[in-house]
């Protein structure tokens, strides 16, 4: 990259901040869609890639660190339990700064017996060299 193109790129970030925000929204929406797809397929290894190494899930029982969350998901998968069909809707993404963002919306799990969990979620993300990674989810 030469000086002229790097200067343009630098100023483009200030002149067109909406495009950066739009990319963040699109990227995080895509990450949530991917997570739901992998959840529904039962691909726990792919799900693990969604989380940052410092991830924490906060649920009604308190904080759950990333390694425990992954182990819990693996245990459910090994038992063959109904994980439910996951979907997200009414998602809003808010860029917080260059490397962080937040998403919130509705999380829905529909189970084979007809029951469902429909709740709000909030997730904080950090942008890494490997894409947006979930840092903290509350639901």
Q: Low-confidence spans: pLDDT under 50, at least 5 residues?
A: 1-19
Shape: globular
Fraction of residues in helices?
40-55%
Classify the secondary structure makeup into a structural class: alpha+beta
User: How many structural domains are formed by the residues?
Assistant: 1
| Strands ordered across the widest β-sheet | 2-1-6-5-4-3
Structure summarized in a few sentences:
By secondary structure, the chain is an alpha+beta fold. It is about 40% helix and about 40% strand.
Keywords:
139 residues, Nuclear Transport Factor 2, Chain: A, 4 helices, 6 strands, 42% strand
What's the SSE blueprint?
Elements: H1 3-15, H2 17-41, H3 44-48, E1 51-59, E2 62-65, H4 66-79, E3 85-97, E4 100-110, E5 116-128, E6 131-138
Parallel strand pairs: 1-6
Antiparallel strand pairs: 1-2, 3-4, 4-5, 5-6
